């Protein structure tokens, strides 16, 4: 039986999972592929660490360049992460004519265009299913299953840490700080959770999805990003009473030759299936002109789910190698010559319904002043709720608006924030659906 040699860069959580699948499920994979995937080399700084796997002699090395320079290796799995040594290793592997599988969303979202061009020039491919959505086959779905569709929009929950935190606040009414601590204890959040809770991890994934959905250059810097740190149990309870759930959503839409791409906390109605995705799970809804709406749902991170996605990419590449075919599914879904520089629509240009929570001093006339300023900016109030429960010594005033322009909302809130009666920056959550 033909053998295809594989090298792994990084034996952290996902790299170890990949090695486990290659070793433990080798016969199963061979029966489906018609060839044997052989783990030829694996590089990591800590090769003496017990990972619960038996490696053949001479597989482990501390030198990653020994892996990418090995002439017998066909496919390299980059699982180191980051944008320094990982980039250098990928470029060297491409130079050596090797195919790449990577989960490195940060690198792809910032320098993917350069890497894809280098791979195309060398006649190799970069596969990146594990970079977005863990075990959900969202890249494959867009590139292959929906290749005949105009993708109109994608919206989804793409960060398990944030979803776990918001689910915890929703189900138990705990504070954001306590929910974050719980996520860290459970292993869903890093010691430094900034990339997750500030929305940047989700933005990396959204940049990749927008690129393959619309045939555009990868553009991270123009994606609007907000995190979840300002969300309180009070906001979540008000949403629940109003028939909504709050989720950190990644949203990308294509219309009038521009892309609206943003990451922010969002109120979605209970009729939206995303509202029922809880814990650390991920889910995404893709809208195409032929298929309508379709939803993918599953574990967005973790050792084995992400490793499963990586192995799927390896098998796809291996099938082409077995058939001596240089034809791969286009890396960015579109042919290289068709990738365009599509402009992003400014967040100020969108229109939405809004939830706004003000913190105000307990004194007469505050509500009328707020309402007056909103009215002057053509913002119509749908409902108002004022609770007797104080938050940090101030009275919370919660509002839902009808559809309003983002730029008008920003201008109105700037004026309202300057009132002496307002004690802190208003909390704003956009409403979708």
Which features does this protein show?
3 domains, Dihydrodipicolinate Reductase, domain 2, single chain, elongated, six-stranded parallel sheet, 17 strands, Rossmann fold
What is the fold's blueprint, element by element?
Blueprint: E1 3-9, H1 13-24, H2 26-33, E2 36-43, E3 60-61, H3 64-68, E4 75-78, H4 85-95, E5 99-102, H5 105-122, E6 126-127, H6 138-145, E7 151-157, H7 160-172, H8 176-185, H9 194-197, H10 200-214, E8 224-225, H11 233-241, E9 244-255, E10 258-269, E11 281-288, E12 292-299, H12 303-322, E13 351-360, H13 366-376, E14 381-386, E15 395-401, E16 404-405, H14 406-417, E17 427-431
Structure write-up:
- The protein is an alpha/beta fold and 433 residues long.
- It has helices spanning 13-24, 26-33, 64-68, 85-95, 105-122, 138-145, 160-172, 176-185, 194-197, 200-214, 233-241, 303-322, 366-376, 406-417; strands at 3-9, 36-43, 60-61, 75-78, 99-102, 126-127, 151-157, 224-225, 244-255, 258-269, 281-288, 292-299, 351-360, 381-386, 395-401, 404-405, 427-431.
- Helix content is 36%, strand content 24%.
- Strands 7, 8, 9, 10, 11, 12, 13, 14, 15, 16 and 17 form an eleven-stranded mixed beta sheet that branches.
- A hairpin with a 2-residue loop joins β9 and β10.
- α7 (160-172) crosses α8.
- The radius of gyration is 24 Å and the shape is elongated.
């Amino acid at each position: 039986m033909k053998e295809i040699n594989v090298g792994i860069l990084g034996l952290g959580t996902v790299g170890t999972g990949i090695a486990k699948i290659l070793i433990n499920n080798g016969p199963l994979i061979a029966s489906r592929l018609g060839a044997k995937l052989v783990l030829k080399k694996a590089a990591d700084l800590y090769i003496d660490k017990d990972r619960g796997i038996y490696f053949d002699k001479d597989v482990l090395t501390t030198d990653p360049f020994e892996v990418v320079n090995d002439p017998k290796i066909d496919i390299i799995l980059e699982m180191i992460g980051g944008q320094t040594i990982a980039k250098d290793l990928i470029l060297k592997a491409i130079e050596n004519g090797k195919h790449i599988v990577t989960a490195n969303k940060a690198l792809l979202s910032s320098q993917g265009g350069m890497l894809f061009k280098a791979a195309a020039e060398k006649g190799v491919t970069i596969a990146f299913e594990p970079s977005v959505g863990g075990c959900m086959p969202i890249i494959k779905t867009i590139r292959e299953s929906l290749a005949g569709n105009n993708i109109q929009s994608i919206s989804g929950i793409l960060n398990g840490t944030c979803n776990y935190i918001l689910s915890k606040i929703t189900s138990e009414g705990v504070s954001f700080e306590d929910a974050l601590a719980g996520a860290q204890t459970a292993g869903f959040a890093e010691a430094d959770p900034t990339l997750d809770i500030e929305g940047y991890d989700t933005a990396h994934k959204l940049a990749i999805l927008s690129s393959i959905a619309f045939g555009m250059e990868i553009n991270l810097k123009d994606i609007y990003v907000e995190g979840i740190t300002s969300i309180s149990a009070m906001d979540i309870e008000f949403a629940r009473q109003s028939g909504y759930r709050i989720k950190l959503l990644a949203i990308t839409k294509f219309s009038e030759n521009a892309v609206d791409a943003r990451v922010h906390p969002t109120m979605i109605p209970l009729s939206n299936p995303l509202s029922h995705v809880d814990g650390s799970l991920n889910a995404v809804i893709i809208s195409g002109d032929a298929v309508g709406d379709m939803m993918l749902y599953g574990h967005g991170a973790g050792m084995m789910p992400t490793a499963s996605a990586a192995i799927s990419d390896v098998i796809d590449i291996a099938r082409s190698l077995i058939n001596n075919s240089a034809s791969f599914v286009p890396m960015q879904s579109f042919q290289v010559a068709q990738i365009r520089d599509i402009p992003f629509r400014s967040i100020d240009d969108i229109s939405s319904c809004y939830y706004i929570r003000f913190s105000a001093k307990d004194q007469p006339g505050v509500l009328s002043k707020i309402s007056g300023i909103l009215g002057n900016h053509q913002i119509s109030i749908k409902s108002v709720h004022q609770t007797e429960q104080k938050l940090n010594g101030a009275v919370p005033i919660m509002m839902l608006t009808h559809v309003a322009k983002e730029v008008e909302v920003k201008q109105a809130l700037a004026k309202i924030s300057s009132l002496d009666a307002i004690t802190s920056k208003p909390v704003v959550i956009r409403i979708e659906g």
